[in-house]
Amino acid sequence: MTTLQLVRTVADLRAALETPRRKGRLIGLVPTMGALHEGHVSLIDVASKRSDLVVMSLFLNPAQFAEGEDLDSYPRDEGRDLAIASEAGVNLVFAPPVEEVYPPGFSTHVEVEGLTDVLCGEKSRRGAEHFRGVTTVIAKLLNMAGPDFVFFGQKDAQQAIVVRRMARDLDFAAEVVVVPTVREPDGLALSSRNAYLEPDERERASALNRALTAAGVAQGNGVDGALGAAQAVLTEAGIEPEYLEARYADDLEPAKSFNGRPVLVAVAARVGRARLIDNVVLNPGDSADL
Q1: 129: burial class by Cβ within 10 Å (0-12, 13-18, 19+)?
Q2: pLDDT score for 201
Q3: In this structure, how many other beta carbons lie within 10 angstroms of the beta carbon of residue 11?
Q4: Who is most buried in 50, 127, 214, 264, counting CB within 10 A?
Q5: Long-range pairs for 121-128 at CB < 8 Å and ≥24 separation?
């Protein structure tokens, strides 16, 4: 367990990082919206290995929630999150109020075109506006903390791809590091929204990972065959996916085959109150993360 420092303003965050930065210490940033689970702990663990000082942001970003989504009901327990962060090895938590991140008159946004109008960026989730909220807050966090590394989970693969493109295009110095998805014993990807699942829904939700596994087994039958195998698993579980698609992992263009380039097979579905996402990368080759 580390001695945890908690700051709530950008000025205090920068002041806390001034001396470590001057001494050449490597700073790792783990952005979170709270409701921490073992997936977040895995990010912190990798950040601790790659960095001399681990900063975790704790900010429920309203800009990435569409009207009618679960912003109001999203799990909140700062005390629990701080205890988990301290136990996991976080050195500094930045937990700002909304007005610190979005002050009165805020009118600047960051948008990545092309990667944000498919999958979770489709019109069913308010289109690219969802990712505009993500990239804007991540750009602000990178400017606020100035880390050497920023860590994301593979479960949110599209988010990581979008942020990596943003960092490249806008010359952010931070390296985007993607950490493998942490799963329950039955394969369900850990998510804060799993808390919404009733027991029978929790059992059905494990079909998402089984569907992705089926796609991998059937990839020799081509893209249509792999997606068909995955769809059969979901249908058997009574799950109608919001999307089930195969896209190239570098540019999110529709995959035509599994030959040569890494392919992201991604799924999203509502199970009860929970909107769940998951993915697998087939034919990863030598790709570093995705």
Answers
A1: middle
A2: 97
A3: 11
A4: 264
A5: 121/158, 122/243, 124/242, 125/66, 126/66, 126/67
Q: Which residue type sits at 165?
A: R
pLDDT of residue 94: 98
How far, CA to CA in Å, does 184 sit from each of 75, 84, 135, 205?
Answer: 19, 18, 29, 11
- Please state which CATH class domain 5-179 belongs to: alpha beta
Q: Which of 37, 40, 109, 130 is catalytic?
A: 40
Judged by DSSP in three states, 93 sits in: strand
* C-beta neighbour count of 168 within 10 angstroms: 11
Q: Enumerate residues 6+ apart whose C-beta is below 8 A from 64.
A: 130, 131, 133, 134, 137
* Helix runs in the chain, H state only: 10-22, 38-50, 78-88, 98-101, 128-145, 157-169, 199-205, 207-217, 222-236
Candidates 39, 87, 80, 89; CA nearest to 58 is 80
165-202 pLDDT, tens digit per residue, is 999 999 999 999 999 999 999 999 999 899 999 999 99
Give the domain 192-280 fold.
Answer: Pantoate--beta-alanine Ligase; Chain: A,domain 2 (3.30.1300)
**48-52, 56-60, 114-118, 149-153, range with the lowest pLDDT:** 114-118
Instruction: Report pLDDT for 123.
Output: 56
Question: Would you state the pLDDT for residue 288?
Answer: 46
Specify the residue for token string 């596994």: 213
Report how far residue 253's alpha carbon sits from residue 53's, in angstroms, rounded to the nearest whole number: 37
37 as an active site residue: the answer is: no
Whether pLDDT at 289 is above 90 = no
pTM of the model: 0.93
Q: Taking 60 as the threshold, does the pLDDT of residue 44 lie above it?
A: yes
